[in-house]
Amino acid sequence: MDFDDTLEEASFRAQARTWLTENAPDHEGDHTDDFLDVAKAWQKAKYDAGWACLSWPKEWGGRDATPVEAKIFADEEARYKLPVGPFLIGQGMAAPTMMAYASEEQKARYLPKLASGEEVWCQLFSEPAGGSDLAALRTRSVRDGDDWVVNGQKIWTSGAHYSDLGILVTRSDPSLPKHMGLTYFFLDMRSAGVEVKPIKQISGQSNFNEVYFTDVRIPDNQRLGAVGDGWRVALTTLMNERAAIGGGGGTMNFQTAFDLAGEVDLDGQPAITDRGVRGQLADWYCKEKGLEFTGARSQSALSRGETPGPENSIGKLVAAKQAQDIASFCIELLGMTGVSMDHEELSAYAEAYLGAPGSRIAGGSDEIMLNIIAERVLGLPQDIRVDKGVPFNEVPTGAK
Amino acid sequence: MNFEFSAEQNLLREQAVGFLSDRAPLSVARRVLDGDETHASDVWQEIVNLGWTATAVPESHGGFGFGHLELCVLAEELGRSLAPVPFSSSVYLATEAVAGADSLVRDDWLPRLAVGEVIGCVALYEVTGAPKPDRMKGCTVTDGRLSGRKRWITDGDIADMAVVAARDAVTGDLGLYAVDLGSDGVGRFTVETIDPTRNHADLSFDNVPASPLMTSTGEAGGLRRLLDRAAVLFAFEQLGGAEASLNMARDYALGRYAFGRPIAGYQAIKHKLARMYVAIQLARSNCYYGAWALATDAPELPLAAATARVSASQAYRECTEENIQIHGGMGFTWEFDCHLFYRRAKLLSVNLGGEYDWKHQLISCIEADQAA
Ligand SMILES: Cc1cc2nc3c(=O)[nH]c(=O)nc-3n(C[C@H](O)[C@H](O)[C@H](O)COP(=O)(O)OP(=O)(O)OC[C@H]3O[C@@H](n4cnc5c(N)ncnc54)[C@H](O)[C@@H]3O)c2cc1C
C-alpha cells in the first residue's frame, strides 16, 4: 500500500509539472470578470501543447492518455487556481454524449473545438416543472419535414449566456409515460427563437439563465439517439455529470477554517485553543481526508486497470455541505466583520456562504444523491412513483 | 498509486472471513455474553493455531514477519465478527509493545506471545480520562519491583503477562514494564463493563518483579507510539463492526414490512442507510491512510492514526445507533444482536482515549506540522 506513482506515472507527472510550471498563468479561479477569456486562452494553450482532454482520442483533439494520466494532469492542474468552469459541461458531459451518439462527421466537427475551448456548451435539461424529476420536462418538440420545431422553457441553464451550443432534452410525445416520450438534440444557441434571460442568484451574480424556445428549428440530423429514446441518452450525460462535478470544496476547505481559527481571538485566546473549535476542525479534516483518500482508492483501481467502485458517489454530497458549514463557521468566528460585505478580503466567507447552497442543489440535490447511494449502491427499493406507467399528459402537477 | 490491499492480502481476508464465519459467528459472542466464560478459549486456540498471533512478529522471534497490513486485514474481520478473544490486547498492544523493546524483555516474551503460548495485555489506566502520562502516578517501580494499581484492563483476567505503564520511583520517569502475571503479589479484580463479551479487570501489584522494555527513558517510554500504532488496528476493528452493522440494518430493512411495503423503501430509512455508507467509506479511506503510516513507519503516524481513529469511531457509533433504530423494538431486545455491536462500538471508542482526545491530538499534529 503506497501513494507512489509507477515509473511511467512518475515520468508523466514530471512532464505535466514542467509544462504547467512554464505555462500556467497566475489566476484566481472562476470569480473574476475576465474569467471566460482567461479560461478560453488557457484551454487553447493546453490544446496546442497536447494537454487538453487527455483521455480523448488524438483525432478529436485528445492524447489517447490512460485514465490515470488524465487524473494525474488534473491533480497537477488543480494546484493552480485556473478557471476551467466554462468547459465542465461541454467537455465533461456533452462530449461523452456526442461520442456515444453523434455521427462521425459531427464528432470531427464539434469535438476538437470543445477540446480547444473555441466553443462552449451548456446543458438545457432542467425546467420549471422538471428538476430532480428531470423526466417531467415539458419543452415540446414536433417533427416538421427535415427539422424539429421546439417550443418551451428551460431554467437554471449555467453559462447559456456565453455558450455557443447546447444539449437539449425535449418531449416529443406527451401521450406516452414520461420516460418514453423524450427526444434529445444538440443545437446552436444562436438559432432563431432562442432567448436567454439571466437569473439573479442569492449571491447577486448571474451564472445561470432562463432559456426560452419559440418555434426554434433544429435539423433532424442534430438528434442524438432515436426518437423517444432521449431518456437513455440523457442518462449517458448524467452519469458523466457526477464525474465532471467531482467533490471539490473550493476555497472553503479545512485549511481555510484552520487558518482563521488560528487568527481570530475568542475570549482573549486564539479560537483554535478552544476544545469545541478543535473538535469541529478535526471533523472537517477527517471528512476532507476521507474524500481525498477515497479518490486515491479509485485511482488505484484505475492504475490496476480495474473500474473504480461506487465509493466516489459520496464526494459531492459530503463536500458541498462541508463547504457550506465551513463558510458559516468562518463567519461565526468573525461575527459582524464576517457578515459585512465591504471588506475585500474578509467578505470572501460571506460570498462563499451565499454561493454554497447552489452546490447542494446543482447536479443532483443532497436528497437525490442519498437516493442514488441507497438505490444503486445499497440496492434498496425505489421510491413509490405514482406517475409510473401513466401517460405523461395525465400525470398530476403542482399547477393549480 | 497503489492505495489498496494487495491480492495476497485480500486472499488472507477471504481465509479470515471463512474461518470467522464458521468458527466465530455472533452466536459465540452471545455465548460469552450470556455465560460465565471470560472469552471463547476454543476460538482463541484455533486463531493461535492459524498463526494469526505471529503475523507481524519478525521471523527471528518466531513470527511470520508479515507486515502490519496483514494485521489490519485481520483486525477488520475480527471487528466484523465480534469474536470474543484477547487478540487486540495480546497482539496490537502487548506484542507490539514488546516488539518495540530494546531490552531482554523482547527476547524473553516476544516468541511466547508470537506462538500464543502466553496472552498479553496492557495496563494503562489509573483514573478517569484518556491514558496520558499525567494521569499515571500511582504505579511505581523500585529496584525492579512494581507496586500500585491499574484499572479497566481489557483481558486482565485472561492474560499471562502485562505491559504496565509505571514510574521509576527515583527519577519519576514514566516507562513501560513487562510483568509476569503469575508472580506473587498480583491481584486481579474482575470489572463488569458495557461490553461483557470482552473481559476486563483491575490489576494490583505488590512488589512484583517488573522488567523495563526500554534501556533508556524518554518520550514516556514509547507510550505515545504504542497507542498510535494500536489506534490504527483498533480503527480497522471499528470499521469492520460498522460495516457489519450497516449490512445487518440493510438486510432487516429489506425484510421488514410496514404500511404494506419494506421499510427499506421509505426515504427516511434509505437516507439513514446511505449516510451510514458514507461514514463507512470515509472511515475506510482514512483507515487505509493509517495502515499506510503504520506499515511504513511514516512520520505522519500520529496524525494518520488520529484521523483513522476519529473517523472509525464516528462511523461505528452512527452505524450501531442507527442499526438499532432501523430494527425498531426488536433492536432494543436482548435477543437481537444489534446491541452486541452497540456495546462494542462504545467500548472501542474509549479504550485508547475517547474521540475528543484523538481530535485534540489530530489538530495538535497539524499545528506542529504547520508551525515547523
Ligand atoms: C447553481 C446551479 C446550476 C445549475 N446548472 C444547471 C444547468 O446548467 N443545466 C441544467 O439543466 N440544470 C442546472 N441546474 C438545475 C439543477 O439540476 C436542479 O436545480 C436540480 O436538479 C434540482 O431541481 P429543482 O431545482 O427543480 O428542485 P426540485 O426538484 O423541485 O427539488 C426541491 C427539493 O425537493 C427535493 N426533492 C425532489 N425530489 C425528491 C425526491 N424524489 N425525494 C426526496 N426529495 C426530493 C430536492 O432534494 C430539493 O430539496 C442548476 C442548479 C443550480 C442550483
Automatic annotation (TrEMBL), chain A:
Domain named Acyl-CoA dehydrogenase/oxidase N-terminal: residues: 8-118
UniProt-listed Pfam families: Acyl-CoA_dh_1 (PF00441), Acyl-CoA_dh_M (PF02770), Acyl-CoA_dh_N (PF02771)
A GO term for molecular function: oxidoreductase activity, acting on the CH-CH group of donors
Cofactors required: FAD
Parts forming coiled coils: none
Annotated Acyl-CoA dehydrogenase/oxidase C-terminal domain residues: 228-378
Keyword Flavoprotein appears in the UniProt entry: yes
The keyword Flavoprotein is annotated on this UniProt entry: yes
Domain Acyl-CoA oxidase/dehydrogenase middle per the UniProt entry, residue ranges: 122-216
Cellular component aspect of the GO annotation: plasma membrane
Keywords: FAD, Flavoprotein, Oxidoreductase
InterPro entries (UniProt xref): Acyl-CoA_Oxase/DH_mid-dom, Acyl-CoA_Oxase/DH_mid-dom_sf, AcylCo_DH-like_C, AcylCo_DH/oxidase_C, AcylCoA_DH/ox_N, AcylCoA_DH/ox_N_sf, AcylCoA_DH/oxidase_NM_dom_sf, Mycobact_Acyl-CoA_DH
Similarity remark: Belongs to the acyl-CoA dehydrogenase family.
The protein's name in its UniProt record: Acyl-CoA dehydrogenase
Organism, as annotated: OM182 bacterium MED-G24
UniProtKB/TrEMBL annotation, chain B:
Acyl-CoA dehydrogenase/oxidase N-terminal domain mapped to chain residues: 6-117
PANTHER family associated with the record: ACYL-COA DEHYDROGENASE, ACYL-COA DEHYDROGENASE FADE28
Signal peptide boundaries: none
Protein name per UniProt: Acyl-CoA dehydrogenase
Cofactor(s) required, per the database record: FAD
Organism: OM182 bacterium MED-G24
Lineage: Bacteria, Pseudomonadati, Pseudomonadota, Gammaproteobacteria, OMG group
Similarity field: Belongs to the acyl-CoA dehydrogenase family.
InterPro entries in UniProt: Acyl-CoA_Oxase/DH_mid-dom_sf, AcylCo_DH-like_C, AcylCo_DH/oxidase_C, AcylCoA_DH/ox_N, AcylCoA_DH/ox_N_sf, AcylCoA_DH/oxidase_NM_dom_sf
Domain Acyl-CoA dehydrogenase/oxidase C-terminal: 227-350
A Pfam family that the UniProt record links to this protein: Acyl-CoA_dh_N
Keywords: FAD, Flavoprotein, Oxidoreductase
Gene Ontology MF terms: acyl-CoA dehydrogenase activity; flavin adenine dinucleotide binding
